[in-house]
Specification:
Elements lengths: L8 E10 L2 E11 L4 E5 L6 H9 L6 E6 L2 E2 L10 E4 L11 H11 L4 H14 L15 H13 L5 E5 L7 H18 L2 E6 L2 H7 L2 E6 L2 E6 L1 H6 L4 H6 L3 E12 L2 E6 L2 E6 L6 E8 L3 E5 L15 E10 L4 E6 L4 E6 L11 E6 L4 E4 L2
Parallel strand pairs: 3-8, 3-9, 6-7, 7-8
Antiparallel strand pairs: 1-2, 1-4, 4-5, 9-10, 11-12, 11-14, 12-13, 14-20, 15-19, 16-17, 16-19, 17-18
Helix pairs in contact: 2-3, 2-4, 3-4, 4-5
This protein binds adenosine-5'-triphosphate.
Family: Belongs to the ABC transporter superfamily.
Keywords: ATP-binding, Nucleotide-binding, Transport
GO molecular function: ATP binding; ATP hydrolysis activity; transmembrane transporter activity
Length: 363
């Protein structure tokens, strides 16, 4: 049998109770070496508890955790060979940036000179060469978080743990720092476990996303799979605002399904569908709206694949328009990026679906 690689992570049957409350239910999770895996989910779903158990800051009630093939379940945090980046940066304010990064190295037994040399290399790695002499307060939020990343990386941990590392940064900086973290992770090839409640951030940085719901894994897979093939309404909604419409699967052949909603038919790629009632998850940006300028609805059949609707509200947001559109059986949310003139409330429209961004929920 081959030895598990350095940096691999394995949760087996891990349960965590706080008193009588079970925060994590029998978690099984494998993380491959060199990948960035995101734990994603709404507040209270158990992401931080999972990360803290991996870090050694919480002890599982039962089950086991392995890092690089070694059982670490009962090991204290400082013997686990992991390093953590917190949302608060947690830098020592009275110490220089260089000393902050060197601190863990010295504590780990390196001489002052050696620790400073390695810390200097760490700062260069995160693009902060020359900033070592400053105090943390003399850096921007984004730079401080890069110092925190450097401080963790110089320890050369088997696994880097990141707990909502961007939540103290403003939106623009968040985008930049997340790209930097991902580039660094891919360039150096370390394993990273990243906690966030922001699905866009998860989609942007991850090799795999693990979506959690009430202490359980709701779905895991590559970003695109979760976005394009959600197994439940919860995932469809969580991975990007989706409209969930009841539909009828009327035909299945060669990996495609034909569905019917209020008499309108549409064909889409579908893996494990069988005829019968189902739900269709439709991304807000996968819907096309066409103004229906007084064309009589009766007598002639409407254009293929289109559903009649009426605009309930519209909001112009610069690069796109958001609509609420009333259909026969429900109200849907639509994002239209191509409209020059927003359609006013009350306008009759017909609705179509794009090929991408719609998925059958068969789970
Ligand atoms: N020390 C504790 N004592 C009691 N309950 C706890 C403790 N820590 C966490 N919990 C509970 O366990 C559940 C999971 O918490 P956890 O912090 O892991 O969620 P989370 O997904 O990280 O949420 P958030 O995004 O809000 O940080 C929550 O219901 C929380 O209230």
């Amino acid at each position: 049998m081959t030895q598990p690689a350095r940096g691999s992570v394995r949760f087996r049957n891990v349960r965590k109770c706080f008193g009588t409350f079970t925060a994590i239910h029998d978690l099984d999770l494998d993380i491959e070496t060199g990948t960035l895996v995101t734990l994603l989910g709404p507040s209270g779903c158990g992401k931080t508890t999972t990360l803290r158990m991996l870090a050694g800051l919480e002890t599982p009630t039962s089950g086991s955790i392995e890092i690089g093939g070694r059982d670490v379940t009962r090991l204290p945090a400082n013997e686990r060979d992991v390093a953590m980046v917190f949302q608060s940066y947690a830098l020592f304010p009275h110490m220089s940036v260089l000393d902050n990064v060197a601190y863990g190295l010295e504590a780990g037994g390196q001489s002052k000179a050696e620790a400073r040399e390695n810390a200097d290399a760490g700062l260069t790695l995160v693009g902060l060469a020359g900033y070592g002499g400053r105090l943390p307060a003399e850096l921007s939020g984004g730079q401080q978080q890069r110092v925190a990343v450097a401080r963790a990386l110089v320890l050369e941990p088997q696994v880097l743990l990141l707990d909502e590392p961007l939540s103290n940064l403003d939106a623009r900086l968040r985008r930049r720092v997340r790209t930097e973290i991902r580039e660094l992770q891919q360039r150096l090839g370390f394993t990273a476990v990243y906690v966030t409640h922001d699905q866009e951030e998860a989609l942007a940085v991850s090799d795999r996303i693990v979506v959690m719901d009430s202490g359980r894994i709701a779905q895991q897979g590559p970003p695109r799979e979760l976005y394009e093939a959600p197994v439940s309404e919860f995932i469809a909604d969580f991975m990007g605002e989706a409209n969930v419409l009841p539909c009828q699967i009327v035909d299945v052949s060669e990996g495609r399904a034909t569905i019917e909603i209020s008499g309108f038919r549409h064909s889409l790629a579908a893996r494990a569908a069988t005829p019968g009632p189902a739900k269709l998850a439709v991304r807000a940006n996968a819907i096309t709206l066409t103004p229906d300028r007084g064309t009589p609805r009766t007598g002639k059949p409407g254009p293929e694949n289109r559903l009649p609707g009426r605009v309930q509200s519209s909001a112009y947001l610069g690069d796109h328009v958001e609509y609420e559109v009333e259909l026969e059986s429900s109200t849907i949310f639509v994002i239209d990026t191509g409209t020059a003139d927003p359609l006013p409330p009350g306008a009759d429209v017909s609705i179509g679906f794009r090929e991408r961004g719609i998925a059958l929920i068969v789970g």
